[in-house]
Design brief:
- By secondary structure, the chain is of the alpha/beta class.
- Helix content is about 30%, strand content about 25%.
- The protein has two domains: about 5-30 and about 280-405, Lyase, Ornithine Decarboxylase, Chain A, domain 1 (Beta Barrel), CATH 2.40.37; about 35-280, TIM Barrel, CATH 3.20.20.
- The protein has helices spanning about 20-25, 35-45, 65-75, 85-90, 110-115, 125-140, 180-185, 210-225, 250-260, 275-280, 310-315, 405-410; strands at about 5, 10-15, 15, 30-35, 55-60, 75-80, 100, 120-125, 145-150, 175, 190-195, 235, 270, 285-295, 300-305, 320-325, 330-340, 345-355, 360-365, 385-390, 395-400.
- Strands 4, 14, 15, 16, 17, 18, 19, 20 and 21 form a nine-stranded mixed β-sheet that branches. Strands 5-6-7-8-9-11-12-13 form an eight-stranded parallel barrel, surrounded by four helices.
- The mean pLDDT is about 95.
- The structure holds ligand LLP.
- Ligand LLP binds near residues 199, 274, 276 and 316.
- Ligand LLP binds near residues 60 and 276.
């Protein structure tokens, strides 16, 4: 069931014409389909229903309060990587006992905040972090539940910037070294050694890297058990890929079945941290054509969204589908679709066949729900765009477009410059 679909010539999100929202909200804006997000969450979470498990939505992919609330209502938790994400998760009503916290650089203030919030699990990533967490917990008279994030050294066969489980990556503790750290952590009074975690990378389109990692983690869990350290949680991270263009990733059910088959115990609670697979195709970026330009070598379509709004094509060379909001039936031509930012890297598509466009017409940049708004910035002093959620026939602005005043909020010209 596609919730971004054409009726006649017109792109709809659920039952609302995208052009109607553009008229009321202005452009550019991110648009999310409630039905798609809920369906994706249920498909993923439901695929693990035979196992004790917790789906912790990876909110770095999209941290909007409305989005977080939607998943919280569905029983989901959150995978966080900062104090700011913890704040958002709590604000949206995520149960703190369903929050897991990864990241190589948690500050002392962040550790305190998370301890005071009684989160489920700290996925610790270094020896020093283990010691510091123990100290902070002692000061607060708290116990800190930990999982060691291990680096299983597995090639996820994805873009190097989003591969995280390789030996040379900064993430986690080498799986062989981790035994020593587990033994040490077990002697620290304020820590409760509860689990193991890993994350291989993002946009994985095969199950085998996950199964290889699971095998290594299960080996570790057994070794630890022999030495008297019994774990409760196995956190497999996120990373399941989606179709942007012609990728053919496993369906969540296939992914879950493969994992379930490979699990050698049902005693552990499985934690999953999906981001992209739930969000990616649940959102689009709607932008307006400003100009078209025939340069000698190329045809350019210049739109009002820029790389500051969606940086994935510039940063990773990622493919995003581009579709007209109203099809015109005009002939398709090859063009570059570019933004207004003063950088050559400011593009959404290159040499893409799209129906010829006229200024004022709307375009949808597809599959932009994950790592779209959450990676957006104010570069070139551009206010960040609005976010809108549709549910059936209704829609609401879930984040207002920033204003020029927002751009200078908190800034000050010091006295010595007056
Ligand atoms: N858990 C951890 C510890 C992670 O580091 C990540 C993503 C996830 C879960 C969620 O991964 P997902 O299910 O979304 O693949 N900005 C890049 C993606 C970076 C992913 C970083 N970590 C992009 O736009 O492709």
């Amino acid at each position: 069931m596609h919730h971004f679909h054409y009726q006649k010539d017109e792109l709809y999100c659920e039952q609302v014409p995208v052009s109607e929202i553009a008229r009321n909200v202005g452009t550019p804006f991110y648009l999310y389909s409630h039905a798609t997000l809920r369906q994706h969450f249920r498909a993923f979470d439901g695929a693990f229903s035979d196992l004790k498990h917790l789906t912790c939505f990876s909110m770095k992919s999209n941290a909007s309060l409305a989005v977080l609330r939607l998943f919280a209502v569905e029983g989901g938790g959150a995978d966080i990587v900062s104090g700011g994400e913890l704040y958002r998760a709590l604000k949206a009503g995520v149960d703190s006992q369903k929050i897991v916290y990864s990241g190589v650089g948690k500050s002392i203030e962040e550790l305190k905040y998370a301890l005071q919030s009684n989160i489920l699990l700290f996925n610790v990533e270094s020896s020093q972090e283990i010691s510091l967490l123990n100290d902070v917990a002692r000061d607060l008279e708290k116990k800190a539940p930990i999982a060691i994030r291990v680096n299983p050294d597995i090639d996820p066969q994805t873009h190097p910037y989003i591969a995280t489980g390789l030996k040379e990556s900064k993430f986690g503790i080498d799986i062989n070294e981790s035994l020593k750290e587990y033994a040490r952590a077990a002697t620290l009074d304020q820590l409760v050694v509860s689990g193991v975690s890993c994350h291989l990378g993002s946009q994985l389109v095969r199950t085998d890297p996950f199964l290889d990692a699971l095998k290594k983690l299960q080996g570790l869990i057994k070794t630890l058990k022999h030495s008297g350290i019994v774990l409760r949680y196995l956190d497999l991270g996120g990373g399941l890929g989606i179709t942007y263009d012609n990728e053919d990733p496993p369906h969540p059910k296939e992914y879950a079945d493969a994992i379930q088959k490979a699990l050698d115990t049902k005693d552990l609670t499985l934690i999953l941290e999906p981001g992209r697979v739930i969000m990616g195709n649940g959102g689009i970026l709607v932008t307006k054509v400003l100009y078209t330009k025939d340069a000698r070598e190329k045809k350019f379509t210049i739109v009002d969204a820029g790389m500051n709004d969606l940086i994935r094509p510039s940063l990773y060379g990622s493919f995003h589908g581009v579709q007209p909001v109203k099809t015109s039936g005009r002939k398709k031509i090859k063009m570059d679709i570019v933004g207004p930012i003063c950088e050559s890297g400011d593009f959404f598509a290159k040499d893409r066949e799209v129906e010829t466009l006229e200024p004022g017409e709307l375009l949808a940049i597809m599959s932009s729900g994950a790592y779209g708004f959450s990676m957006s910035s104010n570069y070139n002093s551009r206010p960040r765009v609005a976010e809108v959620m549709v549910k059936g026939r209704q829609y609401d602005i879930i984040r207002a477009r920033e204003t020029y005043e927002d751009l200078v909020k908190g800034e000050r010209i010091p006295d010595f410059l007056l």
